[in-house]
Amino acid sequence: MTIVNARIYLLSHEDGGRLCPYAMSGYRPNLKFGDVYVCSEVLTGNGADITSGQWTNTRVRIPSGEHLPAGSFSPGAKFLVAEGSHVVGEGIVTELVE
């Protein structure tokens, strides 16, 4: 399991993002690093929400980094946030926690 701190931006519904304007702790989007999708779980802490249209600092748990090239979780690594194959946001790794 890998845990990273990241900045995440969710697109607003008007920009092609989620119908629901926010995501809570436990939100489980797919993350796309390059050409590879991995499952994840967003951990916002203190019951905070991620509001669409804003950058949010959060923690992300990735059960396994299977099939990802070395350095995928390094600070500065960029990724897309997706629900299925529909991209609903983007993010950047700020710190590798474990």
Strand fraction band?
over 45%
Q: Tell me the structural class.
A: mainly beta
Q: Tell me the CATH superfamily.
A: Translation factors
Major sheet summary line:
7 strands, antiparallel
CATH class: Mainly Beta
Q: Mean pLDDT, rounded to whole units?
A: 88
What CATH calls the topology is: Elongation Factor Tu (Ef-tu), domain 3
Number of helices: 0
What fraction, in percent, of the residue positions are helical?
under 10%
Strand line-up of the largest beta sheet: 4-3-8-9-1-7-5
Provide the succession of SSEs. EEEEEEEEE
Coarse shape: globular
- How many separate structural domains? 1
What does this structure look like?
The chain is mainly beta. The chain has a single domain, classed as Translation factors (Elongation Factor Tu (Ef-tu), domain 3), CATH 2.40.30.10. 0% of the residues lie in helices and 52% in strands. It has no helices and nine strands. The strands form two sheets. The chain has a seven-stranded antiparallel sheet, with no helix packed on it. A two-stranded antiparallel ribbon has the order 2-6. Strand 3 and strand 4 form a beta hairpin. The protein is globular and about 35 Å long. The model has no long low-confidence stretch (mean pLDDT 88).
